[in-house]
Amino acid sequence: MPERIDTDICVIGAGSGGLSVAAGAVQMGAPTVLIEGGRMGGDCLNYGCVPSKSLLAAAHHAAVWRRSGDFGVRYAAPEVRFDRVNDHVRSVIDAIAPHDSQERFEGLGVQVIRDWARFVSPREVEAGGALVRARRFVIATGSRPVAPPIPGLEEAGYLTNETIFDNRVLPGHLIVIGGGPIGMELAQAHAELGARVTLLEAARVLGRDDPELAAIAADAVRESGVDIREGVKIARVEAGPAVVLEYADSEERIEGSHLLVAAGRRANLERLDLHKAGIEHGARGLIVDRGLKTTNRRVYAVGDAAGGLQFTHVAGHHAGLVIRNALFRLPVKDDPAIIPWTTYTDPELAWVGLQQEAARSRHGDIDVLRWPLADNDRARAERRTEGLAKAVVHKGRVIGAGIVGPGAGDLIGIWALAVKKRMKVADLAGFVAPYPTMGEVTKRLAGSYYTPKLFSDRTRRIVRLLARFG
């Protein structure tokens, strides 16, 4: 007979969302069991955010010499020791890992089971020789990369974000299939480190982002040395590896040393035996309501498993909602419209809220504001004037905003607050930003909403009229 464990909260998956739920619940007094069959820390720590941003940091350092001549400073082209770059990535992971470790969570009071979980009834899961019965379950199993159905791909072999960080040899020619954030980031990183890189995308790169801002980011990635091919059809992949592109009357064969597939992700749900718990799912993930409850009202889903936006900060946000509802019975409502996201190319690309076409479809009358980074004095001083800030306004309120430029992921924060709080654009136009900073972009962009009225004939008439009174 398996060991029986009765608990208040059972979390399945020790990635960002699961760890946040477990840590919060146990420290608030709820007995908690955490089940993980893979690595503690999940995708973000081991294969995603942490290693990719560490690699990008190394790559951007390697690219500094390309811009230095504009400042009167001369650097030679860098010598890249790719194995040491890999060591850097691993050292960052190792430094963060203790925070996500089994030992830390057991120290907090969480009972950790290192095994794959499966439901055996609507209120019970089995894992590690134990039968866990809980008042509430949280599925936080994350997602994994999936490959498109291209003939020959499986036979030729390929890398994904789960395997590329184990590579200690600089690719001679890296072919990337997929022009989303992962593909674009890793393509630029390898190009800046000295690899030849070709990126293939069936539609347009960064297709979920505002087209105007995405085009600026794509041009910058091209300038880094990435050969971006958009709107391509891949006929097959051959050993080598080689990717064969199909045109109307011909084919083109692109030979590489390494092949990276970054063409989408799928929620990890197969091992769970969801049908035994009455939990339904769709193509993207579990079916959840606005409170993140599944079709089994005792079971929540967070992060990628919930079938929405696939970002680490979304999982953390979901965790907070689940804790409020599961522990304190407070009503919660997940709102994807308030979630910002960033692609960490150089320059970065960030967005929050409705993009202009979606906003126009929903609201009809909108205003679209633009402010080029070339008009920012800090950007001029640092010779980083490529970029644009953009905001979507409806009836004086901010409903969407985006930035492409250095540090866009940090600059988008105030716009995310504006979208969440339904702030008026006047609130952002009226704050004082220190000079000279990139933060002035926010103030200038918001202020541009009033420029046509402030400098109109009507304003000039009012000023002349008031002047008559002394």
Tell me what the structure shows:
The protein is an alpha/beta fold and 470 residues long. The chain folds into three domains: 3-145 and 266-337, 3-Layer(bba) Sandwich (FAD/NAD(P)-binding domain); 153-263, FAD/NAD(P)-binding domain (3-Layer(bba) Sandwich); 347-454, Enolase-like, domain 1 (2-Layer Sandwich). It is 34% helix and 23% strand. Strands 1, 2, 3, 4, 5, 6 and 16 form a seven-stranded mixed sheet that branches. Strands 17-18-21-20-19 form a five-stranded antiparallel sheet, sandwiched between helices. A four-stranded parallel sheet has the order 10-9-8-14. The radius of gyration is 25 Å and the shape is globular. It starts with a strand and ends with a helix. Residues 339-444 form the Pyridine nucleotide-disulphide oxidoreductase dimerisation domain. This is Dihydrolipoamide dehydrogenase. Keywords: Disulfide bond, FAD, Flavoprotein, NAD, NADP, Nucleotide-binding, Oxidoreductase, Redox-active center. Pfam families: Pyr_redox_2 (PF07992), Pyr_redox_dim (PF02852). NAD(+) binds at residues 178-185, 201, 264.
